[in-house]
């Protein structure tokens, strides 16, 4: 059937729904229809707006989230290490408190900075690729992650640089398979 | 209105933190690359190496302190919005002063007061400039006023 069936067609499958049996009478066609004929919901978007938020709109949130996660993880590690070391050194009271704060600050900021810089690199590569290619898909994610790995380790030798890139590639591939495996399978078939 | 283009409140903290981190990373990168270039021993290659080293070492730290500032500022801003039930320039000014004070907490009371004043004045300037710009832009959209000259209509005719 090429055209979507309408109520006027005598051979339309919708016809049978309207003319129900016996004396019940004709139900309103507006209430009695097969919901399969209604396609997916259509959203009216403002002019120039895309269907979902692009990479740039999400970038700052992602960067902020990574900075905060880094700070949280690093701060926890700092508390743990600080408690261990101050106990070993036998420090108590004010000295111990200050030393604990120092540990939390040190671990927290270094972790947050590392994760944040990685997120900035990944987001800027992602935005760059999605602008350059005009689309936003899994390939962008993988390419951006690989480029981030290369750039982050670009100053510590060719071998480490390669390892960084491979790590980015692997992580991004796992992520893509986990989040949109169905879609990729459909694309390959 | 810029308030509609931003995230709603609890998520605004994450967004602002990320924005501040990015700003610090890019700005710090540019600044440190110039500084490292100038402070390195002579020779173009050495200067480039010095520039790279400075960027790698310092710009994450600058970005981190920007992020902490932005995150703290936004947190206090959202808290104020929650309690005062309105969003106005005073929120920003108060939260900037409080942020400056809290982040200098380990340096003693005088440092806290100084940072708080600097933060408050800075944000007051920014908000003031913002309001000024809004006023100036609003001036453009005012409909032109036509004054019609009644003398063109000729003398009034009463005896119709």
UniProtKB/TrEMBL annotation, chain A:
Membrane topology: Multi-pass membrane protein
Main location: membrane
Tagged with keyword Flavoprotein: no
Chain ranges passing through the membrane: 115-132, 157-178
Keywords noted in UniProt: Membrane, Transmembrane, Transmembrane helix
Membrane in keyword set: yes
Cellular localization per UniProt: Membrane
Coiled coil: none
Name of protein: Mitochondrial import inner membrane translocase, subunit
The organism of origin for this protein: Nesidiocoris tenuis
Automatic annotation (TrEMBL), chain B:
Domain of life, per lineage: Eukaryota
Subcellular location: Mitochondrion inner membrane
Transmembrane segments: 61-83, 112-133
Membrane topology: Multi-pass membrane protein
Keywords, in A-Z order: Membrane, Mitochondrion, Mitochondrion inner membrane, Protein transport, Translocation, Transmembrane, Transmembrane helix, Transport
Family: Belongs to the Tim17/Tim22/Tim23 family.
Protein role: Essential component of the TIM23 complex, a complex that mediates the translocation of transit peptide-containing proteins across the mitochondrial inner membrane.
Protein name: Mitochondrial import inner membrane translocase
Record lineage: Eukaryota, Metazoa, Ecdysozoa, Arthropoda, Hexapoda
């Amino acid at each position: 059937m090429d055209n979507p069936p309408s109520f006027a067609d005598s051979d339309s499958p919708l016809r049978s729904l309207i003319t129900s049996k016996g004396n019940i009478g004709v139900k309103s066609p507006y209430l009695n229809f097969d919901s399969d004929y209604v396609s997916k919901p259509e959203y009216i978007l403002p002019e120039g707006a895309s269907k979902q938020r692009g990479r740039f709109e999400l970038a700052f949130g992602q960067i902020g989230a990574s900075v905060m996660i880094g700070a949280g993880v690093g701060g926890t590690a700092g508390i743990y290490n600080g408690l261990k070391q101050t106990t070993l050194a036998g420090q108590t009271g004010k000295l111990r408190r200050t030393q604990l704060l120092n540990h939390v600050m040190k671990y927290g900021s270094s972790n947050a900075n590392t994760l944040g810089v990685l997120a900035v690199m990944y987001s800027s590569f992602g935005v760059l690729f999605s602008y350059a290619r005009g689309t936003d898909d899994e390939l962008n994610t993988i390419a951006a992650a690989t480029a981030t790995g290369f750039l982050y380790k670009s100053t510590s030798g060719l071998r480490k640089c390669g390892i960084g890139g491979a790590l980015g590639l692997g992580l991004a591939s796992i992520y893509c398979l986990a989040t949109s495996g169905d879609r990729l399978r459909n694309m390959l078939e | 209105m810029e308030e509609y283009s931003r995230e709603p409140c609890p998520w605004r903290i994450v967004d602002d933190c990320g924005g501040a981190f990015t700003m610090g990373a890019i700005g710090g990168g540019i600044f440190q690359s110039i500084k490292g270039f100038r402070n390195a021993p002579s020779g173009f290659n050495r200067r480039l190496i010095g520039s790279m080293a400075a960027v790698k070492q310092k710009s994450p730290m600058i970005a981190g302190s920007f992020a902490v500032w932005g995150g703290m500022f936004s947190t206090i801003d959202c808290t104020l919005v929650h309690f005062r039930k309105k969003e106005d320039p005073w929120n920003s000014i108060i939260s900037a002063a409080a942020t400056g004070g809290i982040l200098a907490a380990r340096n003693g009371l005088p440092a806290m007061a100084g940072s708080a004043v600097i933060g408050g004045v800075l944000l007051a300037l920014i908000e003031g400039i913002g309001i000024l710009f809004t006023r100036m832009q609003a001036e453009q959209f005012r409909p032109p006023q036509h004054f019609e000259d009644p003398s063109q209509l000729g003398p009034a005719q009463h005896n119709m």
